[in-house]
Amino acid sequence: MMNLTRPSHAIILFLFFILAINSTSALIKYNLLKFGAKPNGKTDSTKAFLMAWEAACSSADPTMIYVPKGRYLLGSMAFKGGCKSPHITIRIDGTLVAPQDCRVLGKSTDWLSFEGVNGVSILGGALDAKGPSLWACKSSHSNCPSGATTLSFTNSKNIRIRRLLSLNSQMFHIVINGCENVHVQGVRIIAAGDSPNTDGIHVQLSKNVNIIKCSIKTGDDCISIGPGTKNLWVEQVTCGPGHGVSIGSLAKDLKEEGVQNVTIRKTIFIGTQNGLRIKSWARPSTGFVQGVRFTDSLMVNVQNPIVIDQNYCPHNLNCPNQVSGIKIKDIIYEGIRGTSFTQVAIKFDCSSKNPCTGIRLQNVNLSYLNKPAQSSCSNVRGKAMNLVRPENCL
């Protein structure tokens, strides 16, 4: 059985960050205004921000880039690693604003990207990516750019994001890719419920990631968990609108890495499309999902509170008549309660080639419009313990 206690490495990492941030007397501070930034929301401050990063990065001491109150217009920026500074804090008291023309950012992959950095903290502030104009473009089926992720960390270590507001991202809000030791806390994410591909926090190819006390309102997955995720802890997250918490889409790659040791606890889903979902494409793969614990979650009018979908094949493209090669095992649902917006509150639609195994339901109580809900099972093996409603089909 998995250990529900948060890993000790996370506690050590958290204490390290607290000590680093509170030792402000040792920080060398760089005020963005001194590099020529203008807090009027109209003057392009991209160059000033990059100059401040270069100064902080090249220092041998812990540094802080300070963004005072105001609105700062910024284009796409890439902050490269290899810094001499052991820890760089970016403290934001203002709002970073994207260009009004969605095509400026939309042609980039990322708005604010950090690549190969170590010991970077982002504290406070707001990121306004001006996404609605791009969403409107896409909905009108015009010739639109793909859109940019608001904030991304790639191949980085010892990252902290705290008390940040991400508003109206063009695409994903926050992406953690190929990273280690990441702590996200007190983050708020806001986008329209019908905004396309605006996942809140996406994690892939990363280990030792904590997402704590966050509020996510968006048009796609609140938290999406991709291949190669290991030791992920999610706690006290409120989701809605959105598509819930999703492990997947998996089986995009024949030889993709697996997902393991994931804990999702004390979450609240309000009016979301899904609650706790694992999904994989109906195509061959050597990937897997194992060692996942969903516990103590509240569902409020959620369309699909508990779902495993291994026959995921949008628009029946690239996967008709195939079966998922993803192996799913050792998945625990414990203390899941609330209301389903559809009659089938629990749906396990697993692969005929690789049935789901070791699925456990314990203390689950889901109803449908104050009436008994239903469960549906296909190619799944497991057991139910204590009270389980709807009547389980394991």
UniProtKB/TrEMBL annotation:
Gene Ontology biological process terms in this record: carbohydrate metabolic process; cell wall organization
Q: Tell me the PANTHER family matching this sequence.
A: PTHR31375
Q: Which GO terms describe its molecular function?
A: polygalacturonase activity
Q: Tell me the superkingdom of the source.
A: Eukaryota
Identify the species of origin.
Answer: Gossypium tomentosum (Hawaiian cotton)
Similarity remark: Belongs to the glycosyl hydrolase 28 family.
Keyword Signal attributed: yes
Primary subcellular site in the record, as a coarse category: secreted
Which of UniProt's keywords are assigned here?
Cell wall, Cell wall biogenesis/degradation, Glycosidase, Hydrolase, Secreted, Signal
Q: Is this entry keyworded Repressor?
A: no
- The signal peptide stretch is 1-26
Where, per UniProt, does this protein localize?
A: Secreted, Cell wall
Full protein name: Pectate lyase superfamily protein domain-containing protein
